[in-house]
Amino acid sequence: MSLSRNSREPDTTTEIVHEQSYLDLLYRKLDTEREVTARRRDEALRGQAETPQAAAERDASATMYGERLAQLNSVEQGLCFGRLDTQDGQTHYIGRLGLFDEDADYDPLLLDWRAPAARPFYLATAASPDGVRRRRHLRTLSRTVVGLDDEILDLTAPDQGHDLGLAGEAALLAALERRRTGEMSDIVATIQAEQDRVIRADLGGVLVVQGGPGTGKTAVALHRAAYLLYTHRRQLSSRGVLVVGPTRTFLRYIGQVLPSLGETGVLLATMGTLFPGVTADGTDSPEAAEVKGRAVMVDVLAAAVRDRQVMPDAGAPLEIGVEGETLRLDRDTCARARERARRTLRPHNLARRVFVDQVLDALTAQSVARTESDVFDGLPEIPLSANESPDGEVLDARDHAAIRAELAADPAVRAALDELWPVLTPRRVLADLFGSGERLASAAGDLLTESERAALLRSAGGAWTPADVPLLDELAELLGEDDTEARAEQARRQREERAYAEGVLHILEQDDEIIDEEVVRVRDILDAELLAERQQLRGDLTAAQRAARDRTWTFGHVIVDEAQELSAMDWRLLMRRCPSRSMTVVGDVAQTGAVAGTSAWGDVLGPYVGDRWRLRELTVNYRTPAEIMELAGRVLAEANPELRAPTSVRETGTPPWRRGVDPAELPDRIGSIVDDELAAADGGTVAVLCPAALRPALSSAVHTTATTSGSPDRVSVLTVNQAKGLEFDAVVVVAPEEIVAASPRGYNDLYVALTRATQRLGLVHTGPPLPALSGAAELPGEPVR
Ligand SMILES: Nc1ncnc2c1ncn2[C@@H]1O[C@H](COP(=O)(O)OP(=O)(O)OP(=O)(O)O)[C@@H](O)[C@H]1O
After folding, report:
1. Ligand 1: centre distance to CA 216 (Å)
2. Which of 300, 331, 505, 603 is deepest in the core (most CB within 10 A)?
């Protein structure tokens, strides 16, 4: 059953007047809190500190007040959105954060939506009212109450409940019918019971949230992050929370949700950004992406690293010229050194020290023997004295050490060591491996076929791709990080910060001189060292920001959206970032587009947590109207007959349309199609979703039209992959038959495309229409080819 508007407005304006006066009180309270917090932060910033510990405490206070102020500022819009009246006569207001009355024993004036006492607002139903008599949604515009929606939770009241068990229908419907802006909004006022249970699930372990398109998985994932940070702040704020999304466009789309909920301790990232210093903006062929994502790449990379630990050929020792002498390293000596180094089980760059030691020992022995024989060379036989043995050494331990040190510093010896056991970076190993058919053949052995290896070959200097990132991460583990460079970089940054601080003090002092001779000089209370330190503290405000720069950072909780797209190698990287395995995995196996992606959660999680993961399902589609979901359901049946599409919460009365267009005419025709949709969407957003090959031509045609009609910001032309997780008021899917043909998961891709629409869907086919889409209404006068 779908939702129809069922708002029951209170009959008098008295209620609104009453609520307005309460809202005024809340905003007065908010304003006061802001002033007090800003004052305390400023006092903390000005505070003198005699000891480093006092300085650290002062800085921590300043940071805390700063964060609280940001939070107080973020809740300006929609501060209070709900009210609960309980059967025992109490009233609670629910809002974006908690406000308390200091003068009345800290009675709550406003309950934070995440507080346990606020929970019945989301869970109570007429059948199970949980002590609630009435749930009220307040509609506000800035600081003004503009409307109310009441629900009396009483089974005898008319129009209560229906088979979807929705809470706050009228407010929900109003939220769902709002035109899309290109930025996701929070759903804090209208979270539904099945969503609430996911948001408030326990922190520990892996929680999988499986749900069809539009069931609010992304919204729920973000609200869960906010809930966890509120409930487990101490545990999570130092390690931070990581949210992984499919594309940068998607991250921009969701970017405002957490700040609007007052949370900043979350790092939003795509898989492609999780190796600091690498920009993965290249694109792989589907085959290359699939091969790179396979778990077997772990063995291929380990072999590629081993291949870099080279030995001289048997019978052809490496000759090293040192000060006119030739030292020789034969295969056996090198093999023994390699064996010793490998047996340490240390990563390549760290095991190198053992290899180098062994080789230097061997070279030193050779050099010593040579020197000793040289000492006597050409000298007449000198008889031994009574206490000398004929095998006695001429050079003592100190001489040996000196020879060894000279050898270690000798450029020829170093070059030989670099050849045999080079210091390696992940980028160098991967670039060399994918740049050479020979290296690939050696490392992959029987693990990959010839054509799979060929798919991995890339031209020198080519861009990194998102599928390379987990491989680089794996290599970083196999190689071990030599942190000499990082330490030098840190020292350099400290020097820079000190220089900057000196500059700041200089400017402030000039101000002091201009303003007042009598005031305390800034240098009297702050020296450059301290200011530099504070700069650093403030520069690295949140755990999320520090985590973004540090590959080895481990997070307190990891949330993965569109998780069905992740490959086995992606999962390895994420598990490394989350050793506690406190994770929320959000996705839909029916929407898997990547060939390396998943069709069963147990398959990807099993290697890490066995069967110790919990599954929650979301079943109601809040985005896509029933008319469109009916068509999408047929496409899903082609892709995965065993899966069921979620139930739409609403109908629009507008069925999807279809029309055939000659491929040659497509760029000319798409303009007027988009024009029609822009008009029908009435200020909303329009997306043209098409196969990658058509995108450039369609983009330029659509851009011209949209610019002419003055709405370029409302129109996008995207591939299905780029549209993952996004939504638009009107969607036009071009060449659906090509989308289906382009990939083994083509019907899944088409399912994703159809379910991006919140209001209208059109299909433009350039060949015979797919039978699954024949339910769409053929536009009059437009023959379908
Ligand atoms: N309880 C709710 N109240 C209001 N709006 C909601 C609610 N739940 C979901 N929505 C809205 O429904 C739309 C779909 O939500 P979301 O993008 O989170 O779904 P999804 O399951 O991640 O979809 P997909 O898998 O297709 O990307 C969004 O506009 C979201 O704001």
Report:
1. 3
2. 300
